[in-house]
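seq/struct pair 1
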Amino acid sequence: MKNIIIKNRLKQKLTGIIFIIIISNIFLIPSKGFSQFDDRPRMNYRSPREVVFLEPLVFYNKDSANGRLDLYIEIPMNTLQFKYDMFKAEYKASCEYSITIKDAENKTLADNSFSESILNTEEQQKNVKSGSLFELKQYYLPPGNYKLHFTLKDKNSSNEYNKDAEFKVNDILSYKYLASDIMLLSNYTDNGGKKEITPIINRFLGNLKSFYLFFEVVNNSDSIMNKIFIINIKNDDGKNLWNAIFEYTFNPGTNQIFENIELANRIRGNYNIEITDKDSKEIVTKKTVNNIPPDMPVQRRGYRRNI
């Protein structure tokens, strides 16, 4: 199994719409064990604009009993207040954010705080509404259920925003094979083994005509494993929007899966994605996303990450 080289911290301010992750050979899996978000700012902010997006995704490795939490954070620039420095002719925003992770017994396993500053020229400030601050934080955690609390403080406006998420780390030693959470991608390319992916952190599909599912499967044995998976996408009423059957051959260790999804009939509401083992009928991994019709465009932001 090839090694993953991952930066512990990534920050980038972009005014474009592409968030690209470059993977050398294998990895960067995300999927998720469902976050329920509470994104209510303490200021009088209008819905439905969210002020921060979190995407906690859990990955596994055959050689470790712990799971790896990749916490993707997106803070839209128009969440923050910029102040103009007339002497330097620049705009500055400053914020602090904290991440607290507790287990099922309410024991704190992580409690970290970070500070960020963003400087914009006058020209850059013109496009501030289409930019975002991106961060990636990683935590290695033993099997269990976890609650994550995220707090963002804007130093200039003194506004504070809170968000909560829940996720689960499975016990890989109890499985013959184990899938990661699912990551949504707006784009995926493979140029001679150099893979580039564009994740969708905010879980909104917007007006995308197609998208990708990305997940990893760890074969916990020492021999090749053949599996048949059924991928179903349904709405909240249980209507089947898309389904397909895939045959996979999993080598020992981590296996990377990309599947392109094209939905002919776009309907508004939640999309529930389930990947099931055809033989055992067990759900391998799942995810819920939101579809917004083309007449309700979603602004896409992103950052680049090299692995």
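seq/struct pair 2
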Amino acid sequence: MRFRSYKVLSLIFFILGLLFLMNSDSGLLGVSIGISNLTSVINNILGSSLVLISLVIFMVSEGGLEGRLEDEGGRIVDAKTFNNRLKKYNPEVIILDSSILLAYSHKEIETILKEETGKTIIPNAVFREIRDPYLRWVIGRYCQKLEPPEMYKKIAGDYLRKGTKPQHYNKLMKIMEGEMEPTRKGIEELKKEIIKLISRFEKEHNRVPNKEETAREFERHYKVSAADIDVLASALYEARHRKRTVVGEKDLDLKEALEKIRRRGKKIGGYIKDIDPYYK
């Protein structure tokens, strides 16, 4: 009963915060909408503070930040198990997303890549996301860096932009910028998405993000990325040429797009499998 009261209180603070932010000249994520004045600044400060208090109360009611992190990602299997999942389908081509390359240690990634019998492709856009010098060297040694054809990029982008995350992003941005009337369900969704972002950021940087960093994280995690487009485009290209293709990923948007492609028929979808690293 106590936690239910916390959630109600959290919702009240969140709604009040949104109302103050909508009356300011900048949205929740600091997007400028008009000319700032003293009233707008006060509304912005009050609104941001109330939203932050709401998120803290909500995290307490849910059992803390660590609980949210465990629910969000799930535990991943060791590198050997993941490698066995890839090999199960006897792939001719393996395409790895950056989410997989960053999920394991240098040694584990090197082991996975060394043991693969098929051609391992890392699209150029994925390679650009990798900042670690040693990991870039490992990729250069064991993988082929390729640029998928533009035609397949366009098809991949169309599939990905119809996914849950991009659609969610568009709706939540309209609520945050005051372009859409917020409903109770919409407010709850917005609050949960912001908590996920804060959780991820704190895990990576050991601190809570400020408003500008939250805005960047929101865009990075929910908009369709060039890397995701290139991964899907590369898979479509290889499958179109009748190559048994396995995509290693841990992202909802890629998984949804691949499921849609498989439902459309076996001519291309029948040649593509996607493997994630989570415990089943």
